Amino acid sequence: SCTGQEDMAAHVGASRTPQEVMEHYVSMYIHGNLGKACIPDTIPNRVTDHTCPSGGPLSPSLTTPLPPLDISVAEQQQLGYMPLRDDYEIEYDQDAETLISGLSVNYDDDDVEIELKRAHVDMYVRKLKERQRRKNIARDYNLVPAFLGKDKKEKEKALKRKITKEEKELRLKLRPLYQFMSCKEFDDLFENMHKEKMLRAKIRELQRYRRNGITKMEESAEYEAARHKREKRKENKNLAGSKRGKEDGKDGEFAAIENLPGFELLSDREKVLCSSLNLSPARYVTVKTIIIKDHLQKRQGIPSKSRLPSYLDKVLKKRILNFLTESGWISRDAS
């Protein structure tokens, strides 16, 4: 202490300052030969910490409060948050304290009553640990700033790449794993999955080069340029062909059905319907005949037992019925 240094300096004399006396004592008696001979390298009977490591199932750190959240007073009131206690007005398992609120230790308690009270305390401690575990997860994943809408800009800055729609959907599906993985582990998982996807794409690209006889990366640039030119020529050729078709008055709208039997029997609207349903004109005429025949028989009170073709599913039937109703072939109640 300072007083001890001053007393020693006064005993030695006015020629030494308290600081010089302390440095001389440390160098000669602690770090010198005398200290090496008297002070052992390892001090025996050192107290060993036998508590569970931090984060373990019985670790005291599980119930240690976290630093308070850095949020405004209005946001604290919105959340019901008490920063000095790091608590909320409504906690997880709000009635957990009722387990011990009525407990009291009496001198005449027998062993069964004592063990029962200990069991209640143990249940309460477990609930506190679970409450704190949920707080830790919320703090790790920044759920409070996310609730307040304050983490969007921070996320955009942190992410070096754009997240695809598929990855967003996968993140939503894997949300239950948040409680088993830290935020960094979760982000590393998706970063590694992204790297794997990029590597697989690169491998496929290199295999395609190999199949085309390319064995050096210098040759790949020339190959890609030639491939781009071929695709551009093909695209221009298709564009010119479509323009010619429009000029000739054939835009190719009914190209799939115009050469099939019965095409000439269809009206313009029926041609559009058959083309959109990918249904041949002959099949459409058959279905149309059966539906109109059944409709007329029902209007005359004759029960109809016609069987529709097997290729006519519910979607096709509904589309054709709606079309015939709108066109006035059958009444609306029949559809």
From TrEMBL:
Pfam families membership: TADA2A-like_3rd, Tri-helical_Ada2b_C
Recorded GO CC terms: nucleus; SAGA-type complex
SANT domain: residues covered: 6-33
Residues in the signal sequence: none
Gene3D superfamilies: Winged helix-like DNA-binding domain superfamily/Winged helix DNA-binding domain
Region called Disordered, residue ranges: 220-250
Biological process annotations from GO: chromatin remodeling; regulation of transcription by RNA polymerase II
One of the record's GO molecular function terms: chromatin binding
PANTHER family hit by this protein: TRANSCRIPTIONAL ADAPTER 2-BETA, TRANSCRIPTIONAL ADAPTOR 2 ADA2 -RELATED
Protein name (record): Transcriptional adaptor 2B
Gene that specifies this protein: TADA2B
